[in-house]
Amino acid sequence: MKYEENFKESLENPEAFWGRAAEGIDWDKKWDCVLDQSNSPFFKWFPGAMLNTCFNAVDRHVLQGRGDQVALIYDSAVTNTVQKYTYAQLQERVARIAGFLKGLGVEKGDTVLIYMPMIPEAVMSMLACARLGAVHSVVFGGFAPRELSVRIDDAKPKVILSASCGIEVQRVIPYKPLLDEAIELAGPKPEKCVILQRPQVNAEMKQGRDLDWNEQEASAQPADCVSVKATDPLYILYTSGTTALPKGVVRDNGGHAVALLWSMKHIYNINPGEVYWAASDVGWVVGHSYIVYGPLLRGATTIVFEGKPVGTPDPGAFWRVISEHGVKALFTAPTAIRAIKREDPNGEHLKKYDISKFETLFLAGERLDPDTYFWATDLLKVPVIDHWWQTETAWAICGNFRGLEQFPIKAGSATMPMPGYNLKVLDGISAQELGPNEAGLLAVKLPLPPGNLPTLWNNDKRFVESYMAPFPGYYVTGDGGHIDEEGYVFVMGRIDDVINVAGHRLSTGGMEEVLSKHPSVAECAVIGAADNLKGQLPVGFVVLKSGVNRQKDEIVSELVQMVRQDIGAVASFKKAVVVNRLPKTRSGKVLRGTMRKIADGENYTVPPTIDDPTALGEIESALMQIGYAQKVAD
Ligand code: COA
Ligand code: AMP
Q: Which parts of the sequence belong to the AMP-binding enzyme C-terminal domain (predicted)?
């Protein structure tokens, strides 16, 4: 079946479409119905069915005779290590890790927090939780203790799994002091922490609470897979919303397995035994779906890469990994390609490697700008596919297909909606569906396809308020864009206070909360300004309390340090300016959208509701002083 038929059937008869896709999964018990729509917007995929996601990702491949096939390649450019694990070896380690978790009292439904760098044990930990029916919550290593503590508060993990350090190019980051501080800050405390000691750093252990990973694993009894409901949670992944409190996106077991398996074949065209590489981090949704679950559910070989596109040791790192491990498809963020392009504009490093097995480059995480698209296409001479998705969806909302029907590419477009996504462009005020080429809010008519979030962790209310209530009958993506006359989707960026920095999703509201804690700051605003490398970078504006007459530079560097301390280095918050007032509407709303346009040198109109038009001029000169607002029109 080609795209048109698939898409039509997925909307008109989702039960038939996804019921067929579900045949690729091993179920312990079949479903009562494919989709329960009785309690909208809380849809249930495959209610009544039972399965185990770890069994489907690991054990069944061993049972089917592929135990000797490589399941996971750990390639660490920062420690010069390559390790390979077959499916049988992966099963053995995962069962033991599940065994020690079980020994520590972890049972079906309990939560386990994972705070680890890109090492095989991070993947194994996730699978071990899935094996027991426990709910994992992975926190990205670049987040600071306060961010980690907020997640501990919400997920209330029984056990935390961590390692002694992460390695950032030349810098070793001890994780344990960060973890200790986060636990200190958190309300509910984990019963146990199991720490993997890496050779680079020896973590100090807290007696009675901390346990040594290797000792635990060596003495553990392997644990079997526990059957769970298709609708039971597999994991929680926190993502930035518009406030400082992150949203705990919940993933179910059944719908998730079905959707990811479908995507591996039809979007990525990956078959069992082939090598697929998502150069991301297990802390992000891309890592969850396409380092761990997607490729393993498909019986493919996945790569855990500990390194960066540049600097480990050079901009040829990605081409080396592709060549050395015979990668068929790579998935990364445009920012990684821009980083390579900046250091090696003529692609000299590529000449050293044979990448003849490489068939497709997939990009997501932020808009793929046409320059980067053309550069990568010319260099690699393979299709470069932009696809658009979010933590909430677990897989692409839009994209092109390598295993179904490939559409001609239009630079700047994420191509067609995926089956199951009845994507519409809405007018933000009238909520009417807009026609071709009309710009508006991108929204998906319910129901969402399998894999998408059934709710937020312990917070049905926020789930409804954030995504479902603004336009009843639709899921609001938070992105704006348009669909052209041929059905190609163009995603232009967030319409809320979420920004994308180097493919990482961050909340400007969260940064504002940090800035406002500074004793000299009366009020503040943070916007995401365009950046050639990272897509966007945060820029802060602060108004000082009256009577404060300290050096502005000193205050700015304290603010930069505070964001790094409270949110983490990953926020890349390095620029802030002191202004006399923020531009506001008469009702007091800060004009962040206009400020962003000024920063990016775009045309803007002075909003008629503005309180004091001179405030915009001050913003413009402040931005110019730090290298922004270069081509402002009136
Ligand atoms: N643990 C601790 N610190 C981390 C970290 C981690 N796991 N990941 C990043 N950081 C730190 C970095 O060291 C850097 O610190 P610095 O300010 O002291 O230099 C800061 O957080 C910002 O990191 P990053 O945004 O990664 O910037 P970078 O300059 O180190 O690298 C790129 C830039 C483009 C090479 C890098 O962002 C990249 O490879 N991006 C790929 C995109 C990606 O993985 N996206 C995920 C979704 S697909
Ligand atoms: P995250 O939840 O971290 O994956 O971030 C999701 C957000 O990243 C989306 O809401 C978009 O704003 C942005 N995004 C992801 N992929 C794309 C893409 N292909 N094109 C444009 N924006 C994208």
A: 511-589
Smallest CA-to-CA distance from 283 within 54, 505, 512 is with: 505
Asked if residue 565 and residue 463 are part of one domain, the reply reads no
- CA–CA separation, 280 and 123 (whole Å): 13
Unique residue bearing structure tokens 């194994």: 124
Counting ligand 1 atoms within 8 A of each CB, the residue from 143, 168, 321, 386 with the most, and so the one to mutate, is 168
**Ligand 2 within 6 A of 274 CB?**
no
pLDDT of residue 631: 53
CA distance 589 to 605: 16
Same domain, 217 and 148: yes
**Cβ atoms 562, 548 nearer than 8 A:** no
Q: Are 524 and 545 in contact (CB under 8 A)?
A: no
Please state, rounded to an integer, the average pLDDT across all residues of the chain: 96
Q: Convert 471-534 into a string of H (helix), E (strand) and C (coil).
A: CCCEEEEEEEEEECCCCCEEEEEECCCEEEECCEEEEHHHHHHHHCCCCCEEEEEEEEEEECCC
Q: For residue 493, is it within any domain? A: no
Neighbours of 532 (CB within 10 A): 12
Q: Do 535 and 621 belong together in one domain? A: yes
Domain total in the chain: 2
Site to probe by mutation for ligand 2, drawn from 285, 479, 490, 498 as the one with most ligand atoms within 8 Å of Cβ, is 479
Tokens representing residue 23 in the block: 């045949």
**Could you read off the pLDDT of 22-79 as tens digits, one per residue?**
999 999 999 999 999 999 999 999 999 999 999 999 999 999 999 999 999 999 999 9
Residue 633 confidence (pLDDT): 40
Spacing, Cα 208 to ligand 2 middle (Å): 42
Strand partners, 235: 136, 251
CATH code of the domain covering residue 423: 3.40.50.12780
**How far apart are the C-alpha atoms of 504 and 571, rounded to whole Å?**
8
Percent of the chain clearing pLDDT 70 (strictly above)? 99
CA gap 227, 258 in Å, rounded: 16
Percent of the chain with pLDDT over 90: 93
Whether the per-residue pLDDT at 371 is higher than 70: the answer is yes
Query: Do 115 and 162 touch, CB atoms closer than 8 A?
Result: yes
- The reported pTM is 0.95
- Dump pLDDT digits (tens) for 496-540: 889 999 989 999 999 999 999 999 999 999 999 999 999 999 999
By alpha-carbon position, which residue is closest to atom 1 of ligand 2? 390
The whole domain housing 553 covers 502-625
Closest CA to 312 of 321, 324, 322, 323: 321
